[in-house]
Amino acid sequence: MNKNKKMNLQRFAEGNYIGSKDASALIPEQVSEQIMQSAIQNSVVLQLGRKLQNMTSNRTSMPVLDMLPVAYFVSGEPGVKKTTKQAWDKKFITAEEIAVIVPIPEAVLDDAEYDIWAEVKPRVTEAFGKVIDGAILFDVDKPSTWRDGVVTTATKAQSVVTLGA
Fold this sequence. Notes:
Blueprint: H1 3-13, H2 30-41, H3 44-48, E1 59-67, E2 87-94, H4 106-111, H5 116-138, H6 150-156
Antiparallel strand pairs: 1-2
Helix pairs in contact: 2-5
């Protein structure tokens, strides 16, 4: 390996390069914002979930209710009342990137009589919604940094109801 290649690799290893964080001010958000908004419309989970604050890094922690209080009927004399409690736990949210590349040769774009991107974009956002729902609900292609999906969690907690039962 020549001396210049070694120096370039060393600079890269030391972080001497322009990464996406460094150039974020130069990257337009309009397309990605439009795609994310459309992905929300194509995801059952994102439609029904609560929107959290934008994350400033790929991992953040938040307190969540971990134990609910339980109420009881007071019966008989002397009417002893039971105690209960409520508790919180710190949970972590890890953001993972969803991406797809749809290669379209420039010659095809030049020769096309209509807007190909207008045809591709809705299918991409549908695919984003599908992958989000599959991962969150059923563990399908779920990132390893994410907790178990809703169905797995409910099954482990024996909170499963059979239809028709």
